Amino acid sequence: MKIVVTSLFVQDQDKALAFYSEKLGFVKKQDVPVGEFRWITLASPDDQDGTELLLEPNDHPAAKEFQKKIFADGIPATMFGVEDIQAEYERLVDKGVKFTMQPTKMGELTIAVLDDTCGNLIQIVQK
Fold first, then answer.
1. Could you say which of 3.60.40.10, 2.60.40.10, 3.80.10.10, 3.10.180.10 is the CATH number of the domain covering 5-126?
2. What are φ and ψ of residue 31, in 5° steps?
3. Percentage above 70 pLDDT, the chain
4. Would you give the distance in Å from CA 75 to the centre of its chain?
5. DSSP alpha helices (H): ranges in 85-126?
6. Where in the numbering of this chain does the VOC domain appear (predicted)?
7. 38-95, pLDDT tens digit by residue?
8. Sequence spans of domains, the chain
């Protein structure tokens, strides 16, 4: 068994698609109409056949509340791995991405946290 899709609640699917593809560099895999929303998935450019990230509308009241509360508490909604966190941080800052935590060494890991502009904090990590 393996993880094929993981979801992330977003406030606006179009805005999220633009952020995750244009700023972070993920590759759009699927964009299929599903009622009033869409099934939009992206994958890492380094592993396009790997796990897909589903940009899930936060239309359900529980999803909105969950997303709002973890954001307010500073809890990242998910984590992405990077090879060189300092270079990635600088690349993203140059693209206008706002960070709530600059690269910080935590034991054997270095982490940073960014705001995806769609209601989530995202942690990037270098092992």
1. 3.10.180.10
2. -150, 90
3. 100
4. 13
5. 85-94
6. 1-127
7. 999 999 999 999 999 999 999 999 999 999 999 999 999 999 999 999 999 999 999 9
8. 5-126
Q: Where are the beta strands (DSSP E) in the chain?
A: 5-10, 27-34, 37-43, 52-57, 78-81, 98-106, 109-115, 121-126
Mean predicted confidence (pLDDT) in 86-112: 98
**Closest of 117, 119, 109 to residue 24, by C-alpha:** 117
Name the pTM for this structure: 0.95
Using alpha carbons only, give the angle 29, 51, 81 rounded to the nearest 5 degrees: 110
For the purposes of burial, counting CB atoms within 10 Å of the CB of 36, is it exposed (0-12), middle (13-18) or buried (19 or more)?
exposed
Task: At 83, list the tokens.
Answer: 């090879």
| Nearest Cα residue to 24 out of 88, 87, 110, 72 | 88
Contact 114, 99 (CB under 8 A): yes
| 9, β-bridge pairs | 56
